[in-house]
Amino acid sequence: MSFNNTNTDILVAGAFAAFSVDLLVYPLDTIKTRIQSPDYKSLYKNASTNTINRSLFRGLYQGIGSVVIATVPSSGAFFTTYEGTKSLLHRLNPSIGTNGSPMIPTPFIHSAASSVAELVSCLILTPAEVLKQNAQMVQKSASASTQAFDANATIQALRKFNKPSQLWRGYTALAARNLPFTAMQFPMFEHLKQTILSYRQQHGIAHGTLLEKGLVTAVSAGTAGSIAAVITTPVDVVKTRIMLSAAVEEGAESGEGQQARKQAEAQGKDGNVELKRAQRTAQASRSGGLAVGREILRVEGVKGLFRGGALRAVWTALGSGLYLGVYETGRTYLENRRSTGEAACS
Predict the structure, then answer these.
(1) Residues 302 and 19 sit within 8 Å (Cβ to Cβ)
(2) Contact 137/37 with Cβ under 8 angstroms?
């Protein structure tokens, strides 16, 4: 393991970081999901005035329960795998030349380690991510808008799934988004962090405190994360569409589609709009990521593939900065405490 941390240290630091981020930036993630959904215009925009409805900002913490439960083990698994793989690859990487330079550049080591860690993390996180995004789309009435945490939305979303296997639909899309994201973010993050720390040391302004290390980590991670987020937005949009259709079965067009039509007509809405929405969702659920991407490009153009990109960049900058900043601070604190305890005992 890298540094002087045990697996428990990494798990605790990673879990605490994930929990902190979930609570603070989750509302931005909910808004991003709604903006990227195929029903954004029909559900969250006023057709006559082309303005955003207040419903976009209702129930911003819907679905957070499933994410908190899954994020803690998935984040712990990610950081444990990342640190372990990074340490292993560094040890196996032979030195070449008279100056002892590594044969494989360090950024490639970081990319490979983060990719392996992401595959492990996504396997744990996918069911919660699918459930979360479907819960985020549950429509709330104006009277329920004051309820920040609503478990009913998660239960409503869960009832849409007939088989447990449906909760893993979107694993490929989640991995396809997260793999290039982490492969870009972590090398940039590690390089920025080392550059800033080296600069401060060279100019005699480094303090070596826990707070300094946490802030440098947060700034580096936030900057790297926002850049990677913008680049991977098209894959994120495709992932959102696939996960929102994960509960739809083959018979959605004739079954759930007709049911949605009847419910809409009973509420005085256009039933055909709801029927078409269900048909489109059913078709998307049976399509692969490339097919979904082509359909978005055909109907909405390039702009559709980057829908929510700016919000995703802001959310990721805040989330990644806080996530890795809290993780690095927690990891270093546990490492220092362990070292102090061992020195006292010797």
Answers:
(1) no
(2) yes
